[in-house]
Amino acid sequence: MNYLKQLIKTILLVWFSGSLSIISLNAQTEPQAPCYFDEYTNNKSILKTETAIQASVERLKNNLMNNPLADSSKVIPVVVHVIHNGGSENISDEQVESQINILNEDFGKIPGSNGDGNGVDTKVRFCLARIDPNGNCTNGIVRINSLLTYHQTYERAMLTQLSFWDNTKYLNIYLVKTITGGILGYSSFPGGPPAEDGIVVRSNVFGNTGTASSSLGRTTTHEVGHWFGLYHTFNNGCGDDVCFDGDYVCDTPPQASPSFSCTTLNTCSNDVPDENDQKENYMNYTPGACKDMFTNGQKLRVQATLDTIRTFIWSDDNLVSTGCDTNYIAPEICGVAANFVTLTPDICIGNEVGFMDISLNVATSWQWFFVGGTPESSTLPNPSITYNSIGSFAVKLIVSDGTTTDSLAINDYITVSNPGVGNALPFSEYFDSGIFPPQGIIINNPDGGITWGLDSAASVSGGYSIKINNLININYGSADEIIFPYFDLTSMLEPTMTFKWAYARSDPSFSDEMLVLLSTDCGSNFTQIFYRTGNALATGPTQTTPFIPDSSQWKSAEIPLANYASDQYVQIKIVNITDGGNNLYIDNIDIGSLVTGLEDTDDPGDIALYPNPASDYVMLRFTDNTENRQVKIFDPVGKLVLSKDIGNALTIRLSLNDFPNGIYYLGIWKNNSMKMKKLVISR
Ligand SMILES: [Zn+2]
Questions:
Q1: Residue 268: is its pLDDT beyond 50?
Q2: Fewer beta carbons under 10 A from the terminal one: N or C of the chain?
Q3: CATH of domain 340-417
C-alpha cells in the first residue's frame, strides 16, 4: 500500500463554487502487500513518536474520565510567513485572519459555524502571535518578497532560512503562490526535525476571502491535523485492526483508499458495526464542503501530541511571551520592527547578495547601509549588492512607516572570500574503504532525517556502495547532498565526471530525483548538469520491497565538464530528492579525463614530434612562428603533468625525465585552438 505517501503528503482537492475539480497527485490505487509498515516502524524517530502518543492517549482517557475539568482548551500561537513576489499572493491581513477563524471553528466545533458537524471540540484554539521572538509587537504576519513563493518541495529548508520563529513557541505557517505537483499544502509530523517543523500552504486556499474566496480553508485544517499527529482516515487502507492500525484511531471507520467526492461510500467491512467511510472527516481527501468533523479519538491523539511532544507551545508561560494569553493588552501603536535576511551570507569576491526586508508591521521606507558593498547604500526594500573585497562586513537597515522608525545592524553578516584553487584531478571515490563519509566528502542532510550511508548489500566493485533509502523517507521533497571537494578543472584535459547508479521505483507515481549540480562561484549558485527521475532514473523493476541491484542493474552516468575546463575552483554535488520511492545507490565515482579514447588529430603537418617513442626528451618543431603558443602534456589517465609557455619558438626541447613510461598526450594551445599528438615514453 502507499502507506507512507498517504501519511502526510497532502490534500489535493479544490472546491470551486459548486463544481468539483480534482487535482490529484497521489490518488493512485492501493497496490497489494507487502506493506511498508515494518520498515516504517523501524524508523526510530517515528516509532518513538508513535509509541509516546499512544501511551499518552491511554493516560488521557483515564485522566479525562476522572477529571473532566482537565479538558480545558489549549491555545497555539501562530506565525504566518507570507512569501510573495509582489502579486496577489501577498494576501491581506484580513484573509490571513479568516483562516485563523476557520481553524478555531473547525477544531472547536463552534456552534453555528461550518465546523459544527457530528464531531467533537478538540479543545485546541489558535491565536496569531502578538509578540515576536524578540519581544516586538506584531500581528503575527511576516511578509517576505522572494521567488521562493514558486515553491519546490525540496526547497523546504530555504523557507526556514528566510524566516522561522522558534517552533517550540509558534506554529510556523508558510504561504506560497505555487507548489510543485499541484499540491495545495503539506505539513511536518510531530517529533520531526525542528528546522522543517510547520506547514506550507498555497495562499489562494488559505482562508475564505480575498484570493481564497472560493475556498473553505479546509486545506489548512487538514494540514494542521497532521501537525498534531493525525493520519489520514484511509491510512493503511482497511488494515487489520480498527484501533491499532490504519490511523490509530478507533472511532474513524477504516477506509480502503482516499475519496475525492462527497458520495457516501463503505469501502471496508472489517469494522463492527460496519460503518460508512467518514467523508465528513477533515483527515479524509473529500472536498472541503462535505468535511466538518474530528472524532473523539482524533481529539485524544491531538491532545496526546500536546501532552508529549508539543508541550511548551500552549503553556501559560509561552502564551504570555507570545501575546496569546487572555490578559494581553496590545500597545496603542504597533510600530515597525526592522529585520532582514539573505540566503547567501557567505560568498566569493565579486558575487552579488540579494537582501530581503522582513521587517514587521509594514515599513514604507528603507535605508540600507552595506559596509564593503557596491553600492554602499540603498533605499529599495530588497536591494542586490556586490562585494568586491575580502572580509566580513556589517549590514544595517533603518525602516519607517511614517510614524515609527526602527533599525537593525548585524556585524560580520556577510563573509567574502577568494575563490582559491581547488584540488588537482583526477578524483576517485569507490567507497570501499568502509569509512563514511570518506575523507573530503561532506554529506549535507538539512532535515536531519534519513540520508546517504554506506551499503554492503550492493556494489559495482569492492565491498561497498552508498545508498539512500527513499522507501522509508517521509520527509517528501527533502534534499540529501553528497558534496565533493573543490576541484581545479584546468588540471585535466577534457574533464569528465562518471559514476554508476542503481535505482528502482516503488510505485509508478512516486518520483524520487537524482541531480548533479555544479558551482563555479563558491557555492552561491549551482547549475544542474545531470538529472534523472521516474523511468529515466530506474535501473530495476518497480517494487514495493527494498531494491537491491544485481550486477546488471547499474547504469553509468557520463557528464562532460568541458564547459568548465577553465575553472580552477569548482564544486560538484550529487543530490537525492526524496518522494518516498525506493533505494538509490551510487558507486565508482570518477572525476578526471576520458582522454585515453582520444585520437590523434588529422593535421599533424605543422608540428613534428621526435623522437617518438621518446625516452629522456622530445623535440617539437613548428612550421610557423606564431605568437602565444603553449605546450601541455597529459599523462595516461589524463592528468596535466606539464604546462609551458613557448612564445613563438620554432623548436623546443622538453625533458621527459620525470615521467614514467606510458602513452601521453601532448597538446599545443594557441589562443582557443588546440592540436593534440600522442607521445609514447619508453625506456
Ligand atoms: Zn494529508
A1: yes
A2: C
A3: 2.60.40.10
